[in-house]
Amino acid sequence: MTSTRRMFLADFGMGFTGLALGSMLAHDGVIRAGSPSSSPVPEGTMEPPNDPQKRTGKAKSVIWVFLSGGYSHLETFDPKPALNDYAGKTYQETPFPNPVNSQLHKKRFRSVPAEEINVRDVYPTVYPMQVGWKKCGQSGIEVTDWWPHLSQCVDDLCFVRNMWTTDNDHAAENQIHTGRHRLDETQPSIGAWANYGLGSFNDNLPKFVVLGGPTRSDTRQSIDSFYLGPQHAGVPLTLDPKNPLPFGQRFEKQSVDEQAREFELIGKLNGLAGAIYPEDDELRARIRAYELAFRMQASVPDAIDLASETEATRKLYGLDQDATKVAGERFLAARRLVERGVRFVQVFPSAYGVWDSHQKLKENHTKLCASIDLPIAGLIADLKQRGLLESTLVVFCTEFGRTPGLEKRGGGIDGRDHHPNGFTIWFAGAGIKRGHVHGETDELGYHALGEGHYVTDIHATVLHLLGLDSRSLEIPGRKRLEIDHGKVIEDILV
Questions:
Q1: pTM, entire model
Q2: Residue 221 belongs to some domain of the structure
């Protein structure tokens, strides 16, 4: 392609447009050597119907809660008495079929290391429950004693106890959000699909907001949009009222009018750059991002102004206690965001990998459950009392469960390893049955029984409740496998 004089000046950096836009893009991490591995689909081919009148979903917004590291389903929402009955015995010594020999193990499990050297997930000695449990609520759903506040909400929750995934390492964190194993082509995250498929309730806030994460570059996939285009990726916000946005803040002595004129000039320069590069979708997406950034400066601080909440509400979320303050602030901010029209809020209430209890499971889970229990119960109660639970879908999940067997690597004596073969998540809110349990694992909590649900079944269910069909979101040239779409979990819907 022959370069024009204007393109040469802009590319070389001597043109004012090239200087201004180049500086902003470089600051924002967009400029990089080489071409992106997956070019965005040209705009115009990637805007699905989003007329609210054409959608029949019961959910207007989603709060997706993710606990990083893999909480133990056995010590949270799927307690197994048999673990105590046969503690210290091998699987072979119990009256149950040895789960390691099950065809389900080979059918669903996909190890990156060679199978002959993989020792994970097959520890044969039964490890007992590390906490008590009881039936809770009118529905009589079993929840462990580490969740005293959430257990009072079980009649509003719907547990899915037969989840499974294929990666037994922490790339499963990306997998539960994208639906793909790390050896496969990456797909956009569930939040990006929701963003892509839905119209906006509030033009002054992003449609897809992220609170508390992801905290590492290798988990960026969990909020990324890939070939959908960068405008559909999650927008991380901090809860610092003085600096909630990662970009677009006024300088210390800059007035609102001065910044408005600055953004106006940048908009004109960006428009010139857009004319020079009419097929650069990433550039156009970034132009829209800076326009949104300016509008967000008034709306975002208001949305995360937790100080404006009543003392009773702040206490409901645990903001008055050090142990629960971080999670409580993020859940309360999530409620405020959906209240203001944000479609998808992805919340990481705890730090990366902290639930990964290879050792000291009892000590770790006692502390971690206590940090989440009150705030998440507060979120459910608050959404319910405000009438928001009827229009908001809450998803509470992790990347996998923990092994029924004792992890003995490195002389381990008190922990469980990663376990993708069966684990539990729960839903609450719009379109979801209340006080319901769907599916089960075997007596030892090893395998998800029946067909079980691969992680994309969560995605299909979420999109369905938002009034979307993943097959209507197909992108030309990006044909997905059937498993990428998943199947709606019909039994949990009202």
A1: 0.84
A2: yes
Query: Using one digit for the tens of pLDDT, what is the confidence trace for 2-42?
Result: 444 444 434 444 333 333 343 344 334 333 233 333 344 43
What is the rounded CA–CA span in Å between residue 441 and residue 78? Answer: 8
Domain count along the chain: 1
DSSP string across 268-301: HHHHHHHHHSTT-HHHHHHHHHHHHHHHHHHHHH
Angle at 331 between CA 367 and CA 156, to 5 degrees: 85
In a domain, 56, yes or no: no
Contact partners, residue 53, CB within 8 Å, separation at least 6? none
Q: Is 282 within a domain? A: no
Let me know if residue 306 belongs to a domain: no
State the sign of the Cα–Cα–Cα–Cα dihedral 292, 30, 239, 347.
positive
Taking the alpha carbons at both ends of the chain, their separation in whole angstroms is 57
Where on the phi/psi map is residue 248: left (φ > 0), alpha (ψ -120 to 50), or beta? left
Model confidence pLDDT, tens digit, residues 81-95: 999 999 999 999 999
Q: Which residues of 50-66 are buried (b: 16+ CB within 10 A; e: fewer)?
A: eeeeebebbbbbbbbbb
State which amino acid sits at residue 454: Y
pLDDT tens-digit map of 140-181:
999 999 999 999 999 999 999 999 999 989 999 999 999 999
Spell out the residues 6+ positions from residue 259 whose beta carbon is closer than 8 angstroms to its own.
250, 294
Query: How far is residue 69's CA from residue 99's CA, in Å, rounded to a whole number?
Result: 23
Range of the domain at 466: 61-239+311-492
- E-strand spans in 41-189? 61-67, 133-136, 141-144, 157-164
Cis status of the peptide bond prior to 214, with omega within 30 of 0: yes
Look at strands 392-398 and 423-429 and give their pairing: antiparallel
CA contacts within 13 A on the Cβ side of 248: 24
Cα Rg of the chain (Å, integer): 24
CATH code for the domain of 85: 3.40.720
Cross-strand partners of 134? 143
Structure tokens at 99: 């789960």
| Per-residue pLDDT at 23 | 37
Q: Give rounded-to-5 percent helix, strand, coil for the chain.
A: 40, 15, 45
* Residue ranges with strand state E in 94-238: 133-136, 141-144, 157-164, 208-211, 235-237
